[in-house]
Amino acid sequence: MLPEKQLAWGLSRSCIRELAEYGAARKAEIGADKVFDFSIGNPSVPAPDCVNEAIAELIKGDSIALHGYTTAAGLMSLRQKLAEDLNKRFDIAAKPEFMYVTCGAAASLTVSLNAILLPGDEVIVIAPFFPEYRVFTEGAGGKLVVVQPKDDLQIDIDNLKAALNNKTKAVIINSPNNPSGAVYSEDNIKALSVALKEHEEKTGETLYLISDEPYREIVYGGISVPCPLKYYDDSIMCYSFSKSLSVPGERIGYIVVNSRMKDAANVYASVMGSGRSLGFVNPPSLFQRVIERCIGQTSDISEYETNRNILCEGLKEIGYDYIEPQGAFYLFLKSLDPDAKAFSDKAKAHELLLVPSDDFGIPGYVRISYCVSRKTIEDSMPAFKALFEEYKH
Ligand code: PLP
Questions:
Q1: Which ligand 1 atom sits closest to the C-alpha of 41?
Q2: What is the pLDDT of residue 27?
Q3: Residues with CB under 6 A from ligand 1
Q4: 12: left (phi > 0), else alpha (psi -120 to 50), else beta?
Q5: Are the beta carbons of 98 and 247 closer than 8 angstroms?
Q6: Which of 13-17, 118-122, 264-268 is least confident?
Q7: Which of 55, 71, 196, 296 is most exposed, with the fewest beta carbons within 10 Å of its own?
Q8: Which residue has a Cα nearest atom 2 of ligand 1?
Q9: How confident is the model at residue 15 (pLDDT cuts 50, 70, 90)?
Q10: Phi and psi torsions of 225, nearest 5°
Q11: Checking phi first, is residue 164 left (phi over 0); if not, alpha (psi -120 to 50) or beta?
Q12: Cα(133) to centroid of ligand 1, in Å?
């Protein structure tokens, strides 16, 4: 006998993976430039120069030290620099002794969830949400509860309050959001914090807020992303450099347990134990040292902003409805069919690969990942127009 859940997750393919595989096959068949693949969130902008410069410098040094184990929680010197940077930017009293360096956001989330969940605990996510939250939560013994957002995709506090109960252990938020590009406003985060505190007072139990923020630096029009740790003590930050530095294959990120949390020392100990039990200890040594030299840097975000503007203008001109993205590199397009999967299938016939929103916990949209070349966006416009006309006639 094999564990039922693990087997099912291994055998099933997410909509995103299915489309990406279809896209790869289609590109081999008709040529990469003829397929408009908007299916995945792989950064399309190179890493900033500091990344390769740091690697070139580091490999000249002592190979044994460079490629050896570091401490389980990551180099103290790196955690100190990260904490200093976070405190300067967000005033959150981050402490290196409550930080844990990980293999990206996926590891940050699984380590955090396994650190706090007991079997049967509920974890609330706000739709639309990153589909792996379900696997991460259920893998840690929890049950995922989906809360629908307001029409503008901000958190609907009344819906959230209605979902809170004695079994709720955590709420996961993700802003800037994958798949919609929405950024939760400061007022929205403050209202969320008040609702969570009220629930804690009512139940006498800790309710954790997990803030998944791999797109934190990818925002447009100068808007700022409020830091939830500033407003809510029982919070855990899950970060990754995958998107901000365009290094998703290098697997590097971190967890911050809020030092203002009453039980921070125990929660951090549980994070360490969770990381240990999942095998997420001693993240890549070379990349810990690269990150140490690149704090405060990002890849060229303006490239995504230009892509966003060209895409929005083109879609608007054709007549499409969409939620204007404020961050990340995704656009949520209103499906022209009540069934977003059917719309995505029709789009495929125009060589447009768009992910239906049902897997993200909300019906009626498709996700367009615009982390692609400028040419892909420009060349795709006739296909978007033909798809639109197919529905309008
Ligand atoms: N969380 C969100 C919202 C994401 O979009 C992703 C990746 O696309 C992850 C987590 C996982 O990131 P990582 O590649 O750093 O593990």
A1: 8
A2: 95
A3: 41, 104-106, 130, 174, 178, 212, 214, 240, 242, 248, 253
A4: beta
A5: no
A6: 13-17
A7: 296
A8: 130
A9: confident
A10: -100, 115
A11: beta
A12: 10
- Residue of 243, 291, 359, 369 best suited for mutating to test ligand 1, as the one with most atoms within 8 Å of CB: 243
How many Å lie between the centroid of ligand 1 and the Cα of residue 318?
31
pLDDT at position 14: 84
The full 3-state SS of the chain, as one line of letters, equals: CCCHHHHHHHHCCCHHHHHHHHHHHHHHHHCHHHCEECCCCCCCCCCCHHHHHHHHHHCCCCHHHHHCCCCCCCCHHHHHHHHHHHHHHHCCCCCHHHEEEECHHHHHHHHHHHHHCCCCCEEEEECCCCCHHHHHHHHCCCEEEEECCCCCCCCCHHHHHHHCCCCEEEEEECCCCCCCCCCCCHHHHHHHHHHHHHHHHHHCCCCEEEEECCCCCCECCCCCCCCHHHHCCCEEEEEECCCCCCCHHHCCEEEEECCCCCCHHHHHHHHHHHHHHHCCCCCCHHHHHHHHHHCCCCCCCHHHHHHHHHHHHHHHHHCCCEECCCECCEEEEECCCCCHHHHHHHHHCCCEECEEHHHHCCCCEEEEECCCCHHHHHHHHHHHHHHHHHHHC
Cα(203) to ligand 1 centroid in Å equals 32
Segment 191-241, tens digit of pLDDT: 999 999 999 999 999 999 999 999 999 999 999 999 999 999 999 999 999
Contact predicate 33/238, CB 8 Å? no
**Cα(162) to centroid(ligand 1), Å:** 28
Atom number in ligand 1 closest to CA 177? 3
| CA of 48 relative to ligand 1 center, distance in Å | 20
Q: How remote is the CA of residue 356 from the centroid of ligand 1, in Å? A: 18
Mean pLDDT of 124-130: 98
Nearest-angstrom CA–CA distance, 147 and 144: 10
Whether the pLDDT of residue 104 is over 80: the answer is yes
The CA distance from 385 to 350, in Å, is 10
Place of tokens 């990754």: 240
The two tokens of residue 357 are 């929103």
Contacts of 287 (CB under 8 A, 6+ apart): 247, 250, 251, 252
- Contact call for residues 254 and 236 (beta carbons, < 8 A): no
